[in-house]
From TrEMBL:
Residues 3-348 form the FAD dependent oxidoreductase domain. Pathway: Cofactor biosynthesis; thiamine diphosphate biosynthesis. This is Glycine oxidase. Transmembrane segments: none annotated. It comes from the Bacteria. It comes from Halomonas cerina. Keywords: Oxidoreductase, Thiamine biosynthesis. The keyword Oxidoreductase applies.
Length: 378
């Protein structure tokens, strides 16, 4: 029997497995498909909440802890797997924001670098931007990475760690409970027993909990994105070299010159079908920021499902009245940036050690009503 069973192999689940294994626990991770192929693969890879000053203070604390560790984490993954997640700290340009004062107050409170810049400074950084921009906000410390490469690196790492068993194509049918605690999970391939179970199911978390009479307010929020294949402009310069955010849409450059545009926000249940309407909207947004993209090939258009919560906060910690059942889910658009801190916070609670930040805002025990007496499902 393993120390911990993790259900869900996205970036949250994989980093949780890595963290717990480094803390000396034996871990089995169950993933119904291939690890990292849902929301973790579909996102953009910005290592920051999009408008961090709009977020609850608890998100800023969690994000700040993660952001400070991503450079070292990316280097470790390269050393341990040979796969480069392409972490780059090239900064972010906020254009046409009416929230400059709010943003500066937020930055001052956290001692974060954020400056107002004029049009000259904007175009000095990104000369290909649309004409008429009068200025913006500049966050030089913001990083981004190529999330499909990140999840490939994490998957390769887990396959090499002696304390981790990664079981893909292993859908969980139900959780096993008895005497007020969780004991494991049933899959088509058999039972997996563990002293503790961590559900990292993203938008599908409630599918695992509802048969027990448990419910978390986590819902799927569809997001569609596209990627453009772009030429080199002059010398070694790319068409875009920094993340740019305007009117809620963002452009993200990749190391090979490609440019991502995202993303939509849609309440569409579990439907992940890309639509023509979203394709046209994303294309228009991209061209309105970087006009040269009008002449570039759209290489791919896809969608994913973010796990949204009513207050924007993830659930991290043990479920009330179900001993041994932990949750690390509901990160909405911030799963990638919050993953290192969320994994560490979850491990702190599992191991009973002092948490790296105050966990109360995320713990289910402080946010959910007690559940009725459970019926054993052995």
């Amino acid at each position: 029997m393993q120390d911990v069973l993790i259900i869900g192999g996205g970036v949250i689940g994989m980093m949780t497995a890595w963290q717990l294994a480094e803390d000396g626990l034996s871990v089995t991770l169950l993933e119904r498909g291939e690890a990292g192929r849902e929301a973790s693969w579909a996102g953009g890879g910005i290592v920051s909440p999009l408008y961090p000053w709009r977020q609850p203070e608890a998100i800023s604390r969690l994000s700040r802890w993660s952001e400070s560790r991503y450079p070292h984490l990316a280097d470790r993954l390269i050393d341990m797997t040979g796969i480069d997640p392409e972490y780059r700290q090239n900064g972010l340009l906020y254009l046409d924001t009416a929230e400059a004062d709010m943003a500066r107050r937020w930055a001052q409170g956290l001692d974060t670098s954020l400056a107002s810049i004029d049009a000259y400074a904007v175009y000095a950084r990104e000369p290909g931007l649309v004409e008429g921009i009068e200025g913006g906000l500049w966050m030089p410390t913001l990083g981004s990475l190529r999330n499909p490469r990140l999840v490939r690196a994490l998957r390769a790492l887990l396959q090499r760690l002696p304390r981790v068993d990664l079981c893909e194509g292993c859908a969980v049918q139900r959780l096993i409970t008895g005497q007020g605690r969780v004991k494991g999970a049933v899959t088509a391939g058999g039972r997996f027993m563990a002293g503790r179970v961590v559900v990292c199911g993203g938008a599908w978390t409630n599918h695992l909990l509802s048969p027990l009479g448990l419910a978390l307010p986590v819902r799927p929020v569809k997001g569609q994105m596209m990627v453009f294949k772009t030429p080199v402009v002059t010398g070694s310069r790319q068409l875009l070299e920094r993340v740019v955010l305007r009117h809620g849409r963002y452009l993200i450059p990749r190391a090979d010159g490609r440019v991502l545009v995202g993303s939509t926000l849609e309440e569409a249940g579990f439907d992940k079908t890309p639509t023509r309407e979203a394709r046209d909207s994303l294309h228009a947004s991209a061209v309105s920021i970087l006009p040269a993209l009008a002449e570039c090939e759209i290489e791919h258009h896809w969608s994913g499902l973010r796990p949204g919560t009513p207050d924007g906060l993830p659930f991290i910690g043990e479920m009330p009245d179900v001993r041994g059942l932990f949750i690390n889910a509901g990160h909405y658009r911030n799963g990638l940036v919050l993953a290192p801190a969320s994994a560490r916070l979850l491990a702190d609670e599992v191991l009973g050690r002092r948490p790296v930040i105050d966990p109360r805002a995320f713990q289910p025990i402080h946010r959910l009503a007690p559940v009725p007496t459970m019926v054993a499902t052995d």
